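Figure 2 data, in text form.
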Amino acid sequence: MKAYKPCFKPGYTCKFQLYVGKSEYSNLQHLVMDLMDGLLDRGRVLYMDNFYNSPELATKLYECTTHVVGTLRLNRKGVPKDLAQVKLKRGDMEF
């Protein structure tokens, strides 16, 4: 069983979705957008790891006045080729 949940600082859960082997979501983007429903358009910042993050999702959230910070898998669909070729050292960032 997995629990997907957005949390507020210092860790308060505001919504959650349980995964027990079957999902009603066709992809993680739909899951994230559903969990963020009611929290968008308020200038929030969403921190995500590379399991959820994608350029398409970040763009969709940005259009809803929600910024994204997190790691990104370079082989994800939509990652610009020049960004995928950047070699980062520990502590470096690119956007």
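Caption note: The mean pLDDT is 89.
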